[in-house]
Structure formats: C-alpha cells, structure tokens
Amino acid sequence: MAEKVAVLESYLSCHVCSETFRDPVSLSCNHSFCSSCLQKFWEQAKNKNCPICKRKSSKDDPAINFTLKELADSFAGRQKTGSSGTEKVKKKVEVVCSKHPEVPYWFCEDEQRSLCPVCEFSLHQNHKVVPIEQAVSDLKDQLKCDLKSLQDKRDKCKQVEKTYSEMREHTKKQLLSTERQIRAEFYKLQQFLKEEEESRLAALREEEEHKGKTISREMKRIQEQISSLSDSICAVEEELQKHKVAFLSTYKDTQTRARAQSSLSDPQLLSGALIDVAKHLGNLSFRVWEKMKEKVHFSPVILDPNTADPRLYLSDDLTSVRRGDTKQQLPDNPERFTEYNNVLGSEGFSSGKHSWEVEVGDHPYWIVGLAKESVDRKGEKCVSPKYGIWSLVYRSGKYTNGVGQTVSVKKSLQKTRVQLDYNRGEVSFYNPEDMTHIYTHRDTFTEKLFPYFNVCPARDAKTTDIKICPSAISLR
Predict the structure, then answer these.
(1) Cβ–Cβ < 8 Å for 371, 443
(2) Which residues pair with 395 in a beta bridge?
(3) CB distance 364 to 407 below 8 Å
(4) What is the CATH number of domain 1-76?
(5) pLDDT in tens, 265-312
(6) Which of 463, 418, 422 minimizes the C-alpha distance to 437?
(7) How many CB atoms lie within 10 A of CB 148?
(8) In this structure, are residues 22 and 4 in contact, taking their beta carbons and an 8 Å threshold?
(9) Using an 8 Å Cβ cutoff, are 311 and 327 in contact?
(10) How many C-beta atoms lie closer than 10 Å to residue 432's C-beta?
(11) 361 pLDDT tier (thresholds 50, 70, 90)
(12) CA angle at residue 297 from 352 to 422, to 5 degrees?
C-alpha cells in the first residue's frame, strides 16, 4: 500500500520544486510542472525549453491541466490527515467494490472495466475476464505499441520536414543557377543580334558608298561632255558673227566639229544607281531568324535534373549526363532516383510516335530506353519491362535487351536511336549510322513513358558523357 502511494505521489510531484502540483501545466512533450515553477525556470534559463527533456515549448503560456490539478489537490488535501487519509486516497483511487475492498479485482475485456469477483462475476460469465494484473500488463503492452507507433510516425514526420527544408534550400540554389543560365543564353542571343545589326548597317553603308562613287563618276563624265558641248556652241556662235569672206574660209571646220558632237548618242542614266532598299529590309527579321538557327540547337529530349541520382552531373543545357566521383547534396524529393545512376527526360509520352538519338561514344556501361512514370525510384530493381523499363543495355562489350537476352550488333555503336510507337506498344532501337534495326520490344502501355538513361563510371574511357544528339526529329 505504501509503495502504491509513493508511486502516486511521484506522479503528482513537480520536477522543479519536488512538491505536489499547484496549478499544474503540461507541455507538448507530456511533462508537467507547477505553472509558477515553470515560469520561474524559464526566466532563469532565458529560454522556453522543457526542464526535463529540453525540448522547446510550442506555447509561451501553457493552460492549466485541470484534471491533473483536481487529482493533485485531492491527494494533497487527504495527505494532511495522516495515514488514515492515505488509506482513503487508496480507496478512492483503487476501490471498485465498497463491500469487498480487500478482494483482488478482475477485468472484463468485453466491457473494458474492473469488477468485483464476489458481486459481479456471475454477470460476466460469458465475457472474457482476466486478473486485473494481467489486464494492466496486456493493456500497457498495447499502449507501448501505440507509443512506438506514434514515435515512429513522429520520426517520419521529422524526416519529411527535414526533406522539405532541404528542398526549400535547393530551390533557392536552383533559382540562382537557372537565372544565371537564362541571362547567359539571352546575352548570347543579344550579342548575335547586335553583331547582325552592325553587319547589316555596315553592308548598307558600303552600298551607299559604292553607289555614290558610281554616280559621282557618271556626273563627272557628263560635266566634261557639257563643257565640250558649251565650247562647240560658243565656236558656232562666233562663226555666225563673221563677215562673208572670213566666214567662208573657216566655217567648214566649225561645222565638222559641231556635227561630230551632235552625232554622239544622248547620255543615259545608269540603272541600279539607288540603294537596294528591298534587299536590306525585305523579310529582314525572317532572314535574321534563319541565320540565328545556325547558332541554336534543338534537342528532342531534355533531361530532368529533379530526377537525377545525386551521383549524376548534367550539362548546363540539360542534354548530356556523366557519372561523377562524389555524391551531390540534393534533396530526396519523390521524383529523384537514389539507388541507381538513373535520370529521366523532362517530357513524357502517352500517345503518338517519338524518336531521339543518344551519343554514347566508347562509354563502357550505359542503358538507354524508356521508363513508366510510376517506376520505383527509391528501391532496388532490375532494368526490365517487369519493373516498367524498356531498354538497350551495353556492358563489358555486350549488348542485351531488357530481359537479359543478348542482341546482335554488327558494328560497335557510337550512337543509338530510340523509337517509340506508343499506340502500337513498340519500343525499337536502331544504329542511326545506317538505320540497322537492333531489336523491338512489344508491350501494352497503360501510363505515360519517359526517356530513361543510366550511366556508370567510365574512368578508363575517353567518353565520359552520354549525350542527346541535336536533331531535326520533332516530338510528334
């Protein structure tokens, strides 16, 4: 009896002042203290942590736990009366039947309550009744399991919270990196346009200068002709002013020169003396765009960095991937592969025909193909249609399909073409150099498929990257 009272007293005692609770408050960690003791402790510690487990309190002013207060006040009031009071507490807490207080009680599992075996046993003959000690032990074991489940759930929540925190930090890095790359791409386009503008203005000025020189040369020739004609006109006018004898002796020469100049063809304006404005302005933006296409490249597949295993490094333009020696600090978001060196394309297909080429070079170990959207990205799996991956595998000089069968390839591949006909359920692989067919896998597709790549270390190989080839093949 004294032992049970001691346990109850320990349960109702404040861990700060060691006295029975006065206005007790309970923190979220389930530890309880006198309200005034807790506030005093916080003032001294200059924080809001639990005095026992040091966990930070979520509330600055916890509410009074009235259930615990009533129990503490009742216990403290009876304790003042001495040992007889202690007996009354025991009776209030533990007595089930006032007629038989000393009889060991039993527990009815059907009704979930304690019972007196003398007075009530006959009422529970068809119920499952066990000794109260056994019931307490079993229920405590159940509660411990519930506690373990709650603790596991809390740990999982903390892990998700940690991952979200990592994702938030990563998005900030993505913002800065993506902004930098966007600015760099637009700067290159702006530089191209600026250079193209200067080039076309220079061509315009060059034509103006050439046409100006041509007009000046023709004007000079015409001016010389005008001067010569003016001299002849003056000579004829002077000849007409002479007397008969003098006129007859000299008119012949003047007439001959005048007729010679008159017989010359009239001067003609040259064609094309003006600037060819149509040449400079006609379809200007289209011709600049046509030229710009030589500076930019289209990739039929773009890799999705949010799916890449932390050991994979993607190029800035997201068209090539290599396996690095170090693991990057990346958040474990749901889309990311974490067990194998995998990465997916950014766009999936749920209908139509699609194809792209992958440059593999002399890389010693690679896998390319397609994976379904729901493919397991966290656990261990085989690269096969059974697990939602249709692929061509190259390893140790041998090519295999997704079910481990060797496929015949006449010439070692430097590139491979992946071709999908979703509606017909076909994934095919070709050598793009001569369009030699390697093999085709036929299946029934029920969800979106994404381009799939797996890259392993290539320390002894010249080729370290697996690259999407720029192609005129559009996504259809």
Answers:
(1) no
(2) 365, 398
(3) no
(4) 3.30.40.10
(5) 888 888 999 999 999 999 999 999 999 888 888 889 999 999 999 999
(6) 418
(7) 10
(8) no
(9) yes
(10) 17
(11) confident
(12) 10
pLDDT of residue 155 exceeding 90, the answer is yes
Site of tokens 């656990």: 379
Residue 40: predicted pLDDT: 87
* Confidence category of residue 90, pLDDT binned at 50, 70, 90: very low
Instruction: Write a three-state SS string for the chain.
Output: CHHHHHHHHHHCECCCCCCECCCEEECCCCCEEEHHHHHHHHHHHCCCECCCCCCECCCCCCCECHHHHHHHHHHHHHHCCCHHHHHHHHHHHHCCCCCCCCCCCEEECCCCEEECCCCCHHHHCCCCEEEHHHHHHHHHHHHHHHHHHHHHHHHHHHHHHHHHHHHHHHHHHHHHHHHHHHHHHHHHHHHHHHHHHHHHHHHHHHHHHHHHHHHHHHHHHHHHHHHHHHHHHHHHHHHHCCCHHHHHHHHHHHHHHHHHHHCCCCCCCCCCCCCCHHHHHCCHHHHHHHHHCCCCCCCCCCECHHHCCCCEEECCCCCEEEECCCCCCCCCCCCCCCCCCEEEECCCECCCEEEEEEECCCCCEEEEEEEECCCCCCCCCCCCHHHCEEEEEEECCEEEECCCCECCCCCCCCEEEEEEECCCCEEEEEECCCCEEEEEEECCCCCCEEEEEEECCCCCCCCCEEEECCCCCCCC
Buried b or exposed e, range 178-216, using 16+ CB within 10 angstroms: eeeeeeeeeeeeeebeeebeeeeeeebeebeeebeeeee
Does the pLDDT value for residue 82 go beyond 90?
A: no
Confidence band, pLDDT 50/70/90 cuts, at residue 17:
confident
Q: Are 63 and 25 in contact (CB under 8 A)?
A: yes
Nearest to 47 by CA among 32, 28, 60: 60
Quote the pTM value.
0.64
Average pLDDT of the chain is: 85
Residues 402 and 390: their CA atoms lie apart, in Å, by: 6
Query: 68 is written with which tokens?
Result: 């615990």
Which of 2.60.120.920, 3.40.50.2300, 1.10.10.60, 3.30.420.10 is the CATH number of 312-469? 2.60.120.920
